[in-house]
Amino acid sequence: MPEKTRRLLLGAGIASLLALAGCGSGGSGASSAKKPRIGFAMTLNDPYWQNMRLGAIDEAQKLGAEVTILNAEEDVPKQAQQIQELIAQSVDIVCLVPMKPDGLVTSVTALNANKIPVIIVNREIGDGCEYVAYTGTDTYMGGLASAKILMQAIGGKGEIIEFQQVLGTGPQLMRTKALDDTLKQFPDVKVIGRYPHEGNDAKVVATLGTILPDHPNLKGIYVHGDPQAIAAGNACAQAGRKDIAIVGMGGSQQALDAIKDGKITGTSFQRPEEEGRSAIRLAMRHLKGEKLEKRYPIDCPAVTKENVSQFKGQF
Questions:
Q1: Which of 75, 113, 246, 258 is deepest in the core (most CB within 10 A)?
Q2: 11: exposed, middle or buried (C-beta count within 10 Å: 0-12, 13-18, 19+)?
Q3: What is the pTM of this model?
């Protein structure tokens, strides 16, 4: 064999060995640097939740994790099935926004049985299951903030109504409780009706179309959610009832603008993006072996025309 040919073959062999060694090293490195897999079971039925999703995705990218977002669409059986899918995928940890507090206890118990840790986000979970930590807006305190704005606006007396979100969900229960607890201090305020809007602005408008003509003394409206509060404000304005105080909850940019324009009286400021980020941060801290506190609440201050300029809408 000519010397030149022998040298070429020898060089090719060495190059092949180096390439194989490189592949082996790369495979081992990829394995040791495998990204943690986080399942995020939630709903996306409102811009609020979509903003939470964006926060979670961005934080996961920053922290080197893979996150799978699942949309239960406020459906408990659907979310239960999605949790089973996450178990089948053997994710490392699950961040869960429970559609209803009691409806997902069995699903969290299944995660417990499969040794998949759980971070509860935004909504509470019922008793009978284990989770690492809770993070999210203090929904009850946010409801209190909005209720107090309303009481001040109506002078602590008169007729009010409440528009509730999906009945039986954690936020609905906490926000209604916040109103009821506030009303204990205002015996001259009477709730003449409670109506579920289920995230549908049209339901608010239709209900007010029936209520306003029959209740000329209506003084205030307590609304679960900014979009529906704005819908109520528009309906009242069209009916010539600008004397009715209206409070929402959420802190959307549209709500802040509506407060500035006098369409609604106030809201309680929530930060869905931060909720998503906080959930991912806590998940990663737990996976790294850090001991966590049980609760990481995110404050929910009151917003009125007096301080609205200090806030920037989250969604």
A1: 246
A2: exposed
A3: 0.76
